Fold Large ribosomal subunit protein uL15.
Amino acid sequence: MATNTEENKVEILQMHDLRPAPGAKKDRIRVGRGEGSKGKTSGRGTKGTKARYQVRPGFEGGQLPLYMRLPKLRGFKNPFKKQFQVVNLAALSELFPKGGDVDVEALVSKGAVRGGYAVKVLGQGEVSAPFTLKGVKASASAKAKIEAAGGSISED
């Protein structure tokens, strides 16, 4: 069998012994750094996009660009538009069967609307009990039905 002699001694390769193969590690070419570095065309070759400085943003190689393919923005969006959450009179009648004071906090606590938004009451449904709306807008038909039932509206 094999004995531990000088001839069959195996040398173990370790991390600190590793080196790249000869000729494998080369400096990268610094293209476009003047004639002194790579000659007449500075390492860019002749003609073509890569020989020139750079391509403008959004250039798609001559294909019709995305910003021209999409339709133009039409109209105007008012950034100050007030968004209302709507509640119908039918929902108010279910939530407050005996009537009473109705404000945004009461509607939020009952789960009819979310907090932090203006509320508008619309006239769909019937009213049997008198409501007192506070800090809530109401449509003309809702106003008429609420006042006919003996209620009142204050929009402040």
